[in-house]
Structures are given as C-alpha cells and as structure tokens.
Design brief:
By secondary structure, this protein is α/β, with parallel strands linked by helices. The chain has a six-stranded mixed sheet, sandwiched between helices. Strands 1-3 form a two-stranded antiparallel sheet. Strand 9, helix 9 and strand 10 form a beta-alpha-beta unit. The two termini are 29 Å apart.
C-alpha cells in the first residue's frame, strides 16, 4: 500500500526532525456529515498523529505535482489520447485509502491516477503508463484510463461501468469470507446511469460489503450537476440504502467517513452510499479547458478557500505537528521524485510489437496479430 510505504519513507526522512519538539498528536473538529437513513454517523472530531499527517501531506503533494507534470507532458505531446486529471481532489483518494486496509478493494473511473497512487503505484509507473512505455503499470498498453495494482481494478473508460463490477468484487469478498470491503467510485455525471441503480438493488438484496462512493465534483464533463440531475443529493439516490454526504476537500472528513462506511459493511449491515463533495481544478479532460462552463473566478475561489493541501498544511502548522520549513523540505523531495519519474517516462522503451497481443486472453495458444501494415503479422504471447 502506497500510504504505508510512504509512511516508512517519511519515518526515515523525519527521524531527526522529531527531536525539534513537534507535537505527536492533535485533535481537530471536522464538518459533520449529512446523514440519510442513519441514526448516527462518523465522529465530528478527528485525531491526527504527526506520522499520519506527514504521510497524508506527502501523498497529496505527490498527487498534485504528478498531475501538474502530466498536464505539462501532455502539452509536450509525450502523452497522447485521453487524460483526466484529479488535482483538487487529492483529499478524496488519500482519505479513502487512509480509511481502509491494504486487504480491501478499490475500483474507480477513468480519473484514476490519484487512486492508483494511493493504492500502491509509484509515480514512475503511472507517468510511464501515460507515455505508453513498458515500465508503466500496465506495460504501456493501458494508458491514463486503465491502471491496475494489487486489489485495485483500475480506471475504467466506460462511464459508470465500474459500479456493477465493484458490486461483483464485493460479492467475491462475501463469498470467500475474507472480511474485506470494496470501495466502488464513480462521478456525479455517472450517477444518472441505470446500471448504477441496478447495482444498488442487487447489493442491497444480497447485503454486499460494498461502499458506493460518488465523487461529486459538481460537473459531469461540461454540464453542472444542477442542469443534469433532478436531485443533486446523490447520497440519497439509492432510497433504500443509508448514505453520507461528506466534505471531500478535507482529508480527515473523508478518512473518518470511510472508516465508518467500511465498518458498517464489514459488520454485515450491507452496502452504504457516500457522496464526497469535491472539485477538480482542470477541465474534464485535457481536451477541455474547463472555463467555458465555469468562470476562472470560481476555480480561483475554490483554490484559495478550499484547497485540500492548504487546509491540511494550516492544521499541521497551527497544531505544531510540523513546521513550514519541514513541509518545504517535503515539497522539494516530492518535486525531485516527480521530475525523476518524468525523465524515466520519456526515456524508457516502448513495449515491443510482439507483446502487444499479450493479456488479451488469459489462456490460449499463440495467435497472429496484424500490425499497422496488413502484410506484417506478429505472434501473440500467452
């Protein structure tokens, strides 16, 4: 798990820093969740240790810098095709991971880079996948929308299609008796899909350990939620399932809500729906400038008042869990890591043509794959 691994690195790098007299824990009041069909919800206070705070901060900064680097590499034409960035939504991916265990499962949409990093993928593997190199997490054959890690079933390119898949993963958890849960992520735009209502229904009937997570970033592509949905209270959408609406810009709110939801599912009470109110700074994808349907002033207001990294930093400094100087050191380390990963992603070799058919079928004799020239054929590898 990346957060755990990151925590070990943070521990080594900050061993000397702990001697400076920093606080080791602090407790913060957090925004209460809106509840639906629940008598009690997550706590309105969250305890944060110095170790966790440094881990969350480093992870969120890494996701932010990685996405900004992906933006730059796309404009330089190192990255082609579809590319959906999640900067602004860092509290969601980091907070969700902080609320579950490595043995739990996650599936998400095409906006997958941050979730993949939180699940254990390195920046190097993510950026190399974006540039189509063999050192990528899917050997350069998946690209931005198709990334995989242990217990992470990818970004999925079909809008909403990952939701019934996530219910299926939860069914496997129940059938095998592992005690694990599956976080099934989708956006507010996908929430209007019929297949999602069908997944709610089956999950409720079978009491599956599935946490449905709607990342509501207020816009489905270029359409505001108010123009696309008869009701924007997505946490009430299942009607028969309990739900939570959470401040998705606060990593502690997301962590506490995820812990609550995971425990609810683990205890055999069935599925639960979580709506994370969040915001993306980039447009829907790299082909969308993001300012034709919302103003630059709106985006800037969110950056200045609700930025998830800024909120965590202010808490850490004000409670003496860290200092501005220490966080600047972390920023420098993260910048170096991302730059080195980008260098690898632009210099690593592309996958060879003879392996492009590999992984299409799980068990089959080698078969011929036609190349770009119809007279040239390659043998697949099984």
């Amino acid at each position: 798990m990346m957060l755990a691994a990151g925590g070990a690195r943070v521990g080594r790098r900050t061993a000397g820093r702990a001697l400076r007299g920093f606080s080791q824990t602090a407790t913060f009041a957090i925004k209460p969740c809106d509840l639906y069909r629940l008598e009690q919800g997550p706590p309105a206070e969250a305890e944060l240790s110095r170790e966790d705070a440094l881990r969350y901060y480093r992870s969120m900064q890494t996701v932010r810098r990685m996405e900004l680097k992906a933006d730059q590499m796309y404009k330089q034409k190192f990255i082609r095709g579809f590319c959906h960035l999640c900067d602004g939504q860092e509290a969601c991916c980091v907070g969700l991971e902080a609320g579950i265990s490595p043995a739990d499962h996650v599936i998400t949409s095409y906006r997958a880079h941050g979730v993949g990093f939180a699940r254990g993928l390195s920046v190097r593997a993510i950026l190399a996948e974006l540039t189509g190199r063999r050192g990528g997490c899917a050997q350069g054959k998946g690209g931005s929308m198709h990334m995989y890690a242990r217990h992470f079933y990818g970004g999925n390119g079909i809008v909403g299609a990952q939701v019934p898949l996530g219910a299926g993963v939860a069914l496997a958890c129940q059938y095998l008796g592992t005690g694990a849960v599956c976080l099934t992520l989708y956006g507010d735009g996908a929430a209007n899909q019929g297949q999602i209502a069908e997944a709610y229904n089956m999950a409720a009937l079978w009491k599956l350990p599935c946490v449905f997570v709607c990342e509501n970033n207020l816009y489905g592509m270029g359409t505001s939620a108010e123009r696309a949905a008869a009701t924007t209270e997505y946490y009430k959408r299942a009607h028969f399932l309990p739900g939570l609406r959470v401040d998705g810009m606060d990593v502690l709110c997301v962590r506490e809500a995820t812990r609550f939801a995971a425990e609810h599912c683990r205890s055999g009470k069935g599925p639960l729906l979580v709506e994370l109110l969040t915001y993306r700074y980039h447009g829907h994808s790299m082909s969308d400038p993001g300012v034709s349907y919302r103003s630059r002033e709106e985006v800037q207001a969110m950056r200045s008042k609700s930025d998830p990294i800024m909120l965590l930093q202010e808490r850490m400094v004000s409670s003496e869990l860290s200092s501005v100087e220490e966080l600047k050191e972390i920023n420098a380390e993260v910048k170096k890591e991302v730059e080195e990963a980008a260098q690898f992603a632009t210099s690593d070799a592309e996958p060879s043509l003879d392996v492009l058919g590999h992984h299409i079928y799980s068990s089959t004799p080698p078969f011929e794959v036609r190349g770009a020239n119809q007279w040239i054929k390659f043998k697949s590898i099984s």
